[in-house]
Write a sequence for this structure.
């Protein structure tokens, strides 16, 4: 019996050592499970962060694309405005030249037409002229010294009739009528 008792005791000791080993392995596995759970929770947070970053990247790409389109549109508009500005400058120069020429013609006509105000020179004519010009007034007013406001009024009327300039039409809308 004592041999059997020694054998049972050695078996119990072996089983106790095995139980302790298994308990240590169980504790190690439980700690690994806890680590895995925290890592899976971190994976969820990391996935959310990745998705947020991807959305920000997509918004950034959209903003860049919008800026590219806006820049292209603005460049086109700038080219169109530059062409219009060049055309308007040419038209303004043309109108200034035309105005200067008409003033020269008016001075020449006034100097050559009737040197002295009053009655005209051709005494045999049935038409008696009064004033300083032999040309009829295009507006129908008597020839008198015109103030600057009357000149502006006449110039604007001339431009209204003879000029389709975009610049003049815009300027006309923005200024008050001086009559």
């Amino acid at each position: 019996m004592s041999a059997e008792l020694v054998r049972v005791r050695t078996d119990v000791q072996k089983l106790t050592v095995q139980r302790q080993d298994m308990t240590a392995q169980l504790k190690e596995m439980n700690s690994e499970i806890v680590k895995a759970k925290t890592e899976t929770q971190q994976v969820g947070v990391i996935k959310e962060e990745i998705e947020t970053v991807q959305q920000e990247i997509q918004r950034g790409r959209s903003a860049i694309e919008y800026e590219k389109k806006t820049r292209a549109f603005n460049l086109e508009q700038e080219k169109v405005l530059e062409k219009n500005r060049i055309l308007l400058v040419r038209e303004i120069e043309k109108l200034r030249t035309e105005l200067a020429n008409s003033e020269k013609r008016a001075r020449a006509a006034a100097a050559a037409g009737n040197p002295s105000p009053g009655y005209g020179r051709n005494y045999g004519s049935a038409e008696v002229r009064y004033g300083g010009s032999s040309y009829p007034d295009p507006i129908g007013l008597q020839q008198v010294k015109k103030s600057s406001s009357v000149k502006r009024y006449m110039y604007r009327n001339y431009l209204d009739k003879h000029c389709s300039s975009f610049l003049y039409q815009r300027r006309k809308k923005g200024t008050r009528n001086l009559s």
Notes: DSSP finds three helices and no strands in the chain. Residues 1-113 form one domain.
